[in-house]
Protein: 5-methyltetrahydropteroyltriglutamate--homocysteine methyltransferase
Organism: Persephonella hydrogeniphila
Amino acid sequence: MGIKTTAFGYPKIGKNRELKRAIESYWKGEISREEMLKKTEEINIERIKKMIEADLDYIPSNDFSLYDFILDISTMIDAVPERFRKIQDSLDRYFAMARGTEDAVACEMTKWFDTNYHYIVPELTGDFKLVKNRPLESYRWAKEKLGIETKPVITGAFTYLILSKVYEKQEGSLLMKMVKAEESEKFKTFLLELAKVYNQILKELQHEGVKAVQFDEPALVLDISEEKVDDLLEAYSIITEGISDIQIFVHTYYESLEHFEKITNELPVTGIGLDFVSNEENLQNLKKYGFPEDKILQAGVISGRDPWKTDFKELVQLINEIKKYVDEDRIVISNSAPLFHLPVSVQSEKGHLDNRLIKLLSFADERLEEIKTIKQIVNVGLELPEQSLQLLREEFKDEKVRQAVKDVQSHEIKRPHNFKERYRKQIELLGIPRFPTTTIGSFPQTKEIRQMRAKFRRGEISEQEYENFIKEQIKYAIKLQEDLELDVLVHGEFERTDMVEFFGEKLNGFAFTKNGWVQSYGTRCVRPPIIYGDISRPAPMTLKETVYAQNLTKKPVKGMLTGPVTILNWSFYRKDIPKEEIAYQIALALREEVLDLEKAGIKVIQIDEPAFREGLPLKKRKQESYLKWAVKAFRLTNNTVKETTQIHTHMCYSEFNEIIEWIYKMDADVISIEASRSKGEIIEAFERFKYDHGIGIGIYDIHSPRIPSVEEMMEIAERTVQVINKNLIWINPDCGLKTRQWEEVIPALKNMVEVAKILRDKYGNEYQW
């Protein structure tokens, strides 16, 4: 029979981000719903055709989404928060949950495991019912449109619940609050109720004649307890009850399976998927515990997360090792993690990227080709292709950079000045009031800005014309901020496309694709830089625009940089040297920029680290090592500044509560954080941990078009005042404003400044040292 193949998670965005254009055009009223749905259907047909061409034995369906696959499940099982119930139209309600409305705050959004994908967090009450069998509809659609049998894929009940929050009554109060489902006493009850709905889904699929289903359960790689494993097994006994005609695969990825022996042996399913790419632990466990003879192994041996070409010689060795423990006819080759973490195709980059680099790369289309190739190598003896991957990598070495990293690796890195003393001096030098206001950095990237940038890149306008245009945008933003009475200003980042791409384009060792877009959330896509060589800074990167902005105002203007850990985590980084060393290379390059800004008279420098938490290993036993070098990399960017130079950082949309002590060790003078969508939940971390550095509370949700009221923002601010020293509180949005429109931004910032004024009237305008 030979080895079979499958793939999953192929990008949903379309070859040229057609999904973004279709849905955003619909939101703007530029096209009808019917037109939007027709365009998105065309995208889905195109992506399934790619998988048909890859000669897969199991072709997935139900892996396409208009916004988010977790939100798809929430609306499928009627997990709709009460505030959206009055919206009768199901599609309007779907988008409202993701984006909010004028009178309903959007559902919380946070990172999907340790990736840069964001999902919409389910808010559960426990009342589950199947209102729309999406897997069945998708299966029928593929059969009707393309005449093929597919394997519906759906996030498993256990993972869905682990990622959810539930409403619970507050102690001593009739009010409800949101808590993580995994920490709730209701977890098992909810899981078993959810299992009944999943069983109904399977029974309807079985009745339709579906042959195979895949449940994605990446939560099974987390540090789950024995008790949770028992809950899992009980839930799956309910899910699979009465199901005899469908092959049920449970796929795990991003890390090694926890409780390997128990889950592989006792989970009542046909096959289990394991990630053999992220590390060697699943292979080690396979050798130690074996694999049950009554199950199929879905072997994730082709990377779904990094863009580096598969080494077929190493891959064949890995498959041969796996075959020692699992019969060949019980192995299904697969990608190790969803392919939506990769751009669509390398083909678009030919003639754009260095040909040596092209030879090292594989995106989603190329991954499908690799799966097809390895099937032919293993099953019909196709000759191994000629590859010289390591020789190609050696061409990008810089010994000077590597030596600089060695020089700092063994040293303790920290600012020599005590925080309290330096913070007081900073505030006095800046001359700002209590509860100072600022924004996170970017202002709206209007259609006009994007058009001018495109004209410049096409050579239709000169560099001087483009610079003059950017200066006009900066001048407008500075004047606006002064009129709004903000205290610390920003230049607006109009010259920047993406907060990582901008810096990578100015550093050695980075490459940038022309069309290498990856979905971040909803219709938002990013083009991750590719770190292929050693990193250095050939020239200043932000000095010109920042100094120009500062010369327009007497108020302080922040220098705006993206931190080393975020640049690393939001890039496709190389795998031939340790991740830690790449972070130090970036940090040393950024330190040169920080010192140049300081020398030019910039008194506040923000070094953003929104992806600091994102890179945290999923296994707790591996986290301390990461946190140590991540903190050190951040400190390395600014440990040589004067005590009067104020260092800010920004973090958003991640669960920071469990690493608050490490955030404290970063020793930033001010950290700004998200607190709006989570309704100030992050503040609980500061109730437990005495944080005595500056805190910028994000009281304005910028990912929604709605304009928050003063009262709404005030609620979060007042909660903060009860926990944080009033001298240390800053007021700001929760993230940059580049994706918003000016007509939303201006009134929202007015309301935000009003909150600061109310706080000053109530608690005093002067600092009380």
Observations:
- The longest helix spans residues 187-208.
- The chain has a mean pLDDT of 93.
